Amino acid sequence: MNKFAEEIIDFVLAEMPLGVIVFNDKMGITYLNRNADKILARYELPVEVPTICKRIFDSINNKNVREQFPGDIVLYQKISGSQNSWIIRMHIGKGPVPLVYVFMSEEKVSNKLNVNKVRMQYKLTRRETDMVRRVLDGLTNSEIAEDCGISEQTVKDHLSNIYLKCGVRSRFELICGLINSPEPESPPLQQ
Fold it and tell me: Which of 48, 50, 57, 94 is the most exposed place for a label (fewest CB within 10 A)?
């Protein structure tokens, strides 16, 4: 593979919204992307993940992996300390070196709300909408600033504008108002 293709793959893995962790047969972490690093810094990996990985590697060594694990393994569960449920998909690598790929994604509140309709209803900018999405997902101002590559003061300025536009005074009122309000209606299509 050429250097350009490697850079593209590195970029995609680092920036993708999923947490990606790759375990080797010694149960060591061979790779984790930026999102997985953040997840592990914030939450403890569920005990089921290393337990299942060990069972997978045992079945690889016993040469019965396809009988034991005919497809991907999918866990749907809460992670201690997280307010949301998580989808954890485990995939068995097919290369010469035994690896297990773990893909983690959080079922976020912002995924359940049509944030684009909220943007249109309250006339939010795209950046403000991005802030709302992160607030709904429980990120702090400093986490939002780090994610967006902006200062914490800029996050506060955006949130002040959002509060004004949405007619609320606090983060709590914003979240409650957006979650509990009826979905804004779409304008009728022009013929």
Answer: 94
For 84-119, b/e burial (b = at least 16 CB within 10 A) is: eebebebbbbeeeebbbbbbbbbebbbeebebeebb
Q: Per DSSP, what are the bridge partners of residue 23?
A: 29, 100
The answer to whether position 185 is within a domain reads no
Tens-digit pLDDT profile for residues 28-61: 999 999 889 988 998 989 999 999 999 999 999 9
Asked if residue 191 is part of any domain, the answer here is: no
Crossing angle between the packed helical segments 126-136 and 141-148, to the nearest 10 degrees = 130
Closest CA to 133 of 118, 151, 154: 118
Check if the beta carbon of residue 48 is closer than 8 Å to that of residue 86.
Answer: no
**101 and 11 in one domain?**
yes
Structure tokens at 28: 């060591």
Prediction pTM value? 0.64
Give dist(CA 4, CA 126) in Å, integer: 31
